[in-house]
Amino acid sequence: MNTPRPYMKIGLFVLGLAALFAVSVAIGSAVGPAETESSEMEETMDAHGGHETTAGAAHQPAGLGVSADAYTLRLTPTQVERGEERVLRFRIEHDGGAVTEFDKLHERRMHLIVVRRDGTGFRHLHPEMDAAGTWALPVAFSQPGVYRVFADFAVEGEQETLATDVFASGGKFEARPFPAPQPDAETEGYEVDLEAEELVAGKPVALSFALSEEGHPVEELQPYLGADGHLVALREGDLAFLHVHPEEEHGAPNEIVFEAEFPTAGRYRLYLQFRHDGAVRTAEFTVEVPR
Ligand SMILES: [Cu+2]
Question: How many angstroms is it from 159 CA to the middle of ligand 1?
Fold first, then answer.
């Protein structure tokens, strides 16, 4: 028999503590003294310190993790009170430091997409970065719940989408499932009709949105982020983030066309943004990719 005696157990426990302490010290020194963020930020760092490689994950959709391709999103605070305006701060880390050089992607160096886990409360924001690589912007969450925050950016020609959850406490949480699939949507007096080719998982398809206002085609669309419009597509269940591409060619002047590739069968929530009369408007759709 090899049962440890009590003092041996204590000895092992102390050794274990010492090992934990050593790991903390190593992480602490890797992060460096410049770190002045809150303890919430440090907890995140301890949980996700080090860079994972993405071998075997090449075909995973974007937006499923805080880390991908050796980039890590560190965001604080991740717990807020509903209705309270807070400044969200985040960095993109690579090789132990904050990235400060970003490519322009759709005319911006950082796109922040905020949406509650049930697909409601969609927002598309553009934070500001300081010289040290910390992005910041004030955000208030009017409804309680768990929000997905996506940072969409490109570095050295590679687009990345990292995401984390932000928890908004207080009030009464009422989840709403994705609305049923429907080929048209209304927003701020605009009607938007979605025409899609046959939706097939794993194959690029064209999604065409036709805009009208009181039955008349809207033909004076203003460019938004360097294109006719912007489209975010999220998968039901895990909010995987699809990269879709605006198409320059389209049939009618009131049409906005994208090419999307839905990775799997299932439902997706689409957020189409377009600019008209000087304001950006968002129309939402659910589409279903059959098995
Ligand atoms: Cu953006």
Answer: 13
pTM of the model: 0.79
Summary mean pLDDT of the chain: 84
Tell me which fold the domain 39-169 belongs to: Immunoglobulin-like (2.60.40)
In the chain, ranges of CATH 2.60.40.10 domains: 39-169, 184-289
Please, what is the Cα angle at 176 between 233 and 203, to 5 degrees? 25
The DSSP element (H or E) to which 93 belongs, if any, is strand 85-94
- Residue 226 Cα to ligand 1 midpoint, Å, equals 10
105 Cα to the center of ligand 1, angstroms: 8
Contact 146, 98 (CB under 8 A): no
Fold of 184-289: Immunoglobulin-like (2.60.40)
User: For 129-173, what is each residue's pLDDT tens digit?
Assistant: 999 999 999 999 999 999 999 999 999 999 999 999 999 999 999
Q: What is the pLDDT of residue 8?
A: 42
Residue 175, strand partner residues: none
Q: What average pLDDT does the segment 101-110 reach?
A: 95
